[in-house]
Each structure stands twice: as structure tokens, then as C-alpha cells.
């Protein structure tokens, strides 16, 4: 009995203090089953003694010990879960603040540069100047304090991913309002413009591709791996449902309270914006084969136009007035399209970070990249002017479509350098050119046997800018760095060329 009580006591002490899994017992004279012993007995927690009446106590203590372990495990897991939830919430809040600050700085820089250039009556694109400034700062920091350049890149990374994720949306407003832009253009002129867009895209692609191949054969530079480019996260079901809720609530509210937000334009802004975003999300989730026919950009435009049509019908306002609310071009009373196009300047500023990240690639393949981009840009501008004159297209319309192969943000800046142009037509033609390239660029590259990723990337970006780049890079990631570089440089060289009065005058002379 004495031994049983002593062992039970030791097990109890061991169970409540797990730091000592074994409790040494020294018993000089202990009788176990009638045998005298004077040894040190080390009793573990798993020991089960069945002596006399100790069986019940052992089973009870074993159950109690296991229960204690389970309770401790549950407490540990609970504490870990609570800590993980708190940590995740904190990270999400910090990430959101990081995005807002970095994106806000880029947008503020674009805004103040525009105001400064307007005040100084400078016609050169302000965003392009800002891009050169950012790129220069990064290069200087990289050569003097590399860690500072890396820190600056990391700070603006959330903003760059945001711009990359939503980039196609910034082109959509011109396509949404296309019915208003072309309603005064004669059908014959519309057919001529369509022929110039399709034929010009193919011709520019061939010129850029063959130039890149010729220069590459001459310099014989070996390929190296490009810097990895981060990809934005896919759209979640929560985002889809959130924008769906905004669309429904704001649509109904605008019907019953047309001036709830001060003006009809502002009241219609939420549901027109939501319809555009939802169209992009739905279009992005379509199968790849279906995207060849129904590109996400087309889904955006159709979604916004159908929503405007539905609201115009239900409210008795009509389709065109509601569509006019989409893009007002008035900073005091902006529509959904004005909000989206307000990001175009930030797209140009983001080129500085992309070019800096791929600076080693640009330096190594400078001959192929710069030669191909310059040749293709000059060819695109002057061939458009010449074909427009040959087919008898009106001068104002020809000048409006000159920058058809240059990204929207810079194309609008280029046509603003000329008088009597139609910026809405310019933007629409640029988007349509990108859509043509997005749908047919891979087939064309394969048909003309462009195998080199450098040639494929440069030819795609030079002829179909951002939309073509997105389509090609989705299936050929190795061509993406060259697409990104050519995409930015094409607009840069086009803007610089058209900023020179002699070049502008020569283009007008070709147009006639």
C-alpha cells in the first residue's frame, strides 16, 4: 500500500509538471510483493502499476494526464489561430495602406506635372517627362546607393501591380463611347479607317520583326534570362460579388434619385463604373478559345454599353445621353470613363520602373531593341499619313489616326500637338488596333516564321502596344520583357518625334 501511494504521488507530480517526465524515487527499504529493495526507481508517466488497490488510481491518473495534454494542445492551437488571424488582418491593413500611399504618390506626381506643363504652355507630354525623371533617379541611385534604388522599387511595387492588373480598363472608355465618336463620320471614311488599321497593323508588325531579326543576325548577341516580372493576383469571387452589389444598388438608386450625388453624371458614375469592372472580370475568366472572339476589353465595352442602354430605356433618358455621362472630359463633373482614363498618366510613369528593372536586358540587346522600335515607329507614322492620302481620307481624320500603334496615354498627347483632330477617334482606333493584334498576333508571327523571342516581342508591342503584349505574354512569357520594353519605347519615340515642329510639318505635308 505504501509503495502504491508513493508511485501514485510521483505520477501526479509528473503530470502537473511536464518539465520533469521522470521523477526519481529513493527508497532505502521498500517492500514490493514481499521483496526488500534499496534502489532508485525511475517511474515514467506511461508506467502502469497494478499492485493491490492501485489499479483504479493508475487508470484515473492516466485519464487525467491525457485530458491535461489535450487541454494544453487545444489552448495552444486556439492561441495560434487567434494570433494568425490578428497577424493576417494586420498584414492586410498594412498592404492596403502601402498600396494607397504608393499609388497616391504616382497619381499626385502625374497631376502636378500636368498642371505645371499647362501653366508653362509646354506641349511635350508631362507624364513622359516624369518617366524620364524617375528613370534617371533610379539609375543614379543604383550607381551610388544600390540599396536605396531597391528600396524605392519595393516601395512602389504595390502600385505597379495595381496598374498592371487593371491596365486594360484604362483603355476602355474610348471604346465604350465609340458610338458617339463615329456617329458623324461617313460610312465610306469608316471603311477606309478600318482598312488602314488592319493593314497598317500587319505592315508594322512585319517591319519591326524583320528589322529585329536583321540586327540580331548582325550583332549576334546571345540571349540571357530576363528579370522575373511579378504577376498580379487573379480576381476573387468576393470582388465579383462586391462590384455586383455596387452595380445593383447604385442602378436602382439612380432611377429613384437621379441627382442624389449632386448631378446626374455623378449619380450614374457608380453603376457605369461597376458594369465596366464586372465586364472585365467576366471576360478575364472566359476560356482562352472564347477570348479569341470575345476579348476582355470587348466584354468591358459591351457590359458598359448594355448597362447604359438599360438605364436609358428604364429612365426614359435614352441611350446617347446616358452614354454621354460616361465620359464628360470635365474635371468638375467626371464620369466613370474620366475616372478610368485618369490613370493613363500613371501608366506612363510606371514605364520608368519597368525599364529600370530590365535595364541589363536593354543594355545587352540595345541594338536590336532601339533600332527596331525607331524604324517601326517612323514607318507607322509616315505610312499612315501616306495611305490616308492615297485612299482619299479626310485630313483631320488621317491626322487623328496617325498614332494608331502607340499606347492610348501617349497617343492622345501626340494628337493634341496637331490642330483639328478628334481625340475620341484616336483613342478608339488605338484600342481597335490593339484588339486586332491581341486576336491575330500569334498566328501572324507563326505564319511569317518569327521564332526569336526578341523579334516576336518587339514586333508585337510595336504594332499592337499593350493589348497585343498582354495576349502574347500570356502564352509566351519569355517574350514579355521585350514586349514591355518596346511597348514603352514605341510611345516614347513617337512622342519625341511628334514634339519636333519639323517632323510634325513633314507629316502634315504627307497627309496633304
Describe the 3D structure:
- With 512 residues, the protein is mostly helical.
- The chain has helices spanning 2-16, 54-119, 126-144, 146-166, 172-176, 178-181, 187-219, 237-256, 264-284, 288-291, 296-315, 319-326, 336-341, 344-357, 359-364, 366-390, 395-400, 408-415, 423-447, 453-475, 480-499, 501-511; strands at 22-26, 30-32, 35-37, 40-44.
- The strands form two sheets. The chain has a two-stranded antiparallel ribbon.
- Strand 2 (30-32) and strand 3 form a beta hairpin.
- It is globular.
- The termini are far apart.
- 39% of the residues are buried.
- This is Plastidal glycolate/glycerate translocator 1, chloroplastic.
- It is found in: Membrane.
Shape: globular
Total strands: the figure is 4
- Quote the average pLDDT: 81
- What is the C-alpha radius of gyration, as a whole number of Å? 34 Å
**Fraction of residues in H or I helices:** over 70%
Taking strands numbered 1, 2, ... along the chain, how are they ordered across the largest sheet? 1-4
Number of helices: 22
Largest sheet: 2 strands, antiparallel
Strand content: under 5%
Element order: H for helix, E for strand: HEEEEHHHHHHHHHHHHHHHHHHHHH
Class by SSE composition = mainly alpha
- Can you tell me the residue ranges where pLDDT is under 50 for at least 5 consecutive residues? 1-63
Distance between the termini: 118 Å
Output the keywords.
membrane, 22 helices, 512 residues, 4 strands, 74% helix, mainly alpha
Produce a short descriptive summary.
With 512 residues, the protein is mainly alpha-helical. The chain has helices at residues 2-16, 54-119, 126-144, 146-166, 172-176, 178-181, 187-219, 237-256, 264-284, 288-291, 296-315, 319-326, 336-341, 344-357, 359-364, 366-390, 395-400, 408-415, 423-447, 453-475, 480-499, 501-511; strands spanning 22-26, 30-32, 35-37, 40-44.
